[in-house]
Amino acid sequence: MTGFSLGTRRPQLAAAALEAVAFQIEDVLAAIEQAVGQVRVLMTDGGLTHSDRLMRLQADLSGRVVARSGEHDLSALGAADAAGLTAGLWTLGELERRPRPADTYEPELGEAERRARKRAWHKAVRRALPAQERSAG
Fold it and tell me: Which of 83, 84, 96, 104 could form a disulfide with 89 if both were Cys (CB 3.0 to 4.6 A apart)?
């Protein structure tokens, strides 16, 4: 992390950590989009997604809708669904028609601000790299 001073406190560190997570996810999404095309909605689940602040930040930094699953443990649910499917308790069609509750976050940050923040993020990442990696990139 960069840009801290002696006046930096825990809330600023926590906010910077959440921003780093969101920017790293955005970098992965950019690579995915280069490989397979546009990602219109980011569907999320898991521990960090319980943070409304992170979900809002992710929507703003990515410019996409973020849909957070209403299910708390999708890994366990997926295993149970697969087992039930294998045992013949339900069909794939039944699973596909099951409602999927989600909280959604719409991007509110303007495009110019989004681009400026991404540029600042990539600049900070480059500064954090060892000199030989900076010159190779």
Answer: 84
CA torsion sign for 59, 18, 134, 35 is: negative
CB atoms within 10 A of CB 67: 20
| Unique residue bearing structure tokens 């697969």 | 82
Joined tokens for residue 40: 């219109």
In the beta sheet, which residues pair with residue 105? 66
- The model carries a pTM of 0.77
Please, are residues 118 and 125 in contact by the beta-carbon 8 Å criterion?
Answer: no
70 confidence band (pLDDT: 50, 70, 90):
confident
Which H/E stretch holds residue 33?
A: helix 10-36
The closest of 21, 63, 73, 18 to 42, measured between CA atoms, is 63
